[in-house]
Design brief:
Number of helices: 12
Pathway: One-carbon metabolism; tetrahydrofolate interconversion; Amino-acid biosynthesis; L-methionine biosynthesis via de novo pathway
Number of strands: 8
Radius of gyration: 19 Å
Largest sheet: 8 strands, parallel, barrel
Bound molecules: flavin-adenine dinucleotide
Enzyme class: oxidoreductase
Keywords: Amino-acid biosynthesis, FAD, Flavoprotein, Methionine biosynthesis, NAD, Oxidoreductase
Strand order of the largest sheet: 1-2-3-4-5-6-7-8
CATH topology: TIM Barrel
Family: Belongs to the methylenetetrahydrofolate reductase family.
Strand content: 5-15%
EC number: 1.5.1.54
């Protein structure tokens, strides 16, 4: 069987999934990271089962910065796709030549993984540092999309991209950011998933900018990326790594919950964090988003708590059949 047949028979393309009418409020999808070891990999599969049972529209697997996690991306994505879950596999340009990127795409296609999030990636070691194009490699995600779309071997890939509600930290201006994002959509990307954000206005303004600049390509599905807030420490870390902003008012709200002792008041902080993420999601649903994409860090609890608050999942808890791992 050819790779194209495998993918056509076993996997929906995400762009088709986004057009499919769904029962319930709004579809949701989840992001996983390649696990570090076998135990973590098994936990991830259990988490995937939970999200499968909750009706996730698709799952994505990120692409790491180094060798073994990169291999795990393909292996994990393949296993999830057989679960069966519509699976989106990420790919970055970091430390790759054009030939290596082609080889990876060939490998993905052979595994039936043709839903691709085409990304540049961050400079290794310093996510916010200067990008240096590797020898024989590419400089922008746009080039990867163009290469895929111009190649008969890969043109069946269904491509998504990253977009940035606050603008990418290296774009220089929101105008540039809009231009570069649109270039990727015009080159053949079908939808975008946003970086995490904590002010819904930023997401809505990105959507407005894209549609105003190009009513056709700018109106392609824009999926909000949501990182459920579970602690001050983790949200600060995520914000630092992603280049997003933690709004002052939200930080103050979390600090009030901490009441001077983050450790002693962990549960209170978490409660406020999950409520905040749920309120953001509620507003996004009211604004007609096509999907809610949860960055899970391979855990189920926080995402399920948010989904429960939205009326989209049963409550999380031991009495509902969850074990400590989940
Ligand atoms: C949903 C999502 C998933 C992600 N998954 C991963 C992952 O799995 N692995 C990982 O390592 N990282 C991941 N990232 C992080 C991402 O790789 C970084 O944010 C990266 O810095 C930008 O990637 P990009 O694909 O948007 O790059 P690009 O579109 O190539 O843009 C990179 C920078 O160049 C600028 N630019 C674009 N075109 C031009 C041009 N023609 N001239 C000048 N400047 C230009 C852009 O404004 C931006 O500043 C993800 C991000 C998001 C939002």
């Amino acid at each position: 069987m050819s790779s194209t047949n495998i993918s056509a028979s076993s996997q929906w393309s995400i762009s088709e999934v986004l057009k499919r009418p769904v029962p319930g409020r709004v579809p949701f999808s989840v992001e996983f990271m390649p696990p570090r070891d076998d135990a973590a990999e098994n936990r991830l599969y259990r988490a995937a089962e939970v999200f499968h049972d909750l009706g996730a529209s698709f799952v994505s697997v990120t692409y790491g910065a180094g060798g073994s996690t990169r291999e795990r991306t393909a292996r994990v994505a393949r296993r999830l796709s057989r679960q069966p879950l519509t699976t989106l596999v990420h790919l970055t340009l970091v430390d790759h030549t054009v030939e290596e990127l082609e080889e990876i795409l060939r490998g993905y296609a052979e595994l039936g993984l043709t839903n691709l999030l085409a990304l540049r990636g961050d400079p290794p070691g310093d996510p916010l540092g200067e990008w240096i194009t590797s020898e024989g490699g590419m400089s922008y995600a746009l080039e990867l999309i163009q290469m895929i779309k111009n190649s008969p071997e890969f043109s069946h890939f269904d491509i998504g991209i990253a977009s940035f509600p606050e603008g990418h930290y290296r774009a220089g201006s929101l105008e540039n950011d809009t231009r570069y994002t649109l270039a990727k959509l015009r080159a053949g990307a079908e939808y975008s998933i946003t970086q995490m954000f904590f002010d819904v206005e930023d997401f809505l303004r990105l959507r407005d900018r894209l549609v105003a600049a190009d009513p056709v390509h700018g109106a392609k599905p824009l999926i909000p990326g949501l990182m459920p807030i579970t602690s001050l420490r983790s949200v600060r870390r995520q914000v630092e790594l992603s280049g997003s902003t933690l709004p002052r008012a939200l930080e103050e709200k979390l600090l009030r919950a901490a009441n001077g002792d983050e450790e002693a008041n962990r549960d209170e902080i978490r409660k406020v964090g999950i409520e905040t993420t749920s309120e953001m999601a509620e507003r996004l649903i009211a604004e007609g988003v096509p999907d809610l994409h949860f960055m899970t860090l391979n855990f189920t609890r926080a995402t399920q708590e948010v989904l429960h608050n939205l009326g989209m999942a049963p409550a999380w808890g031991a009495e509902h059949g969850h074990d400590a791992v989940r």
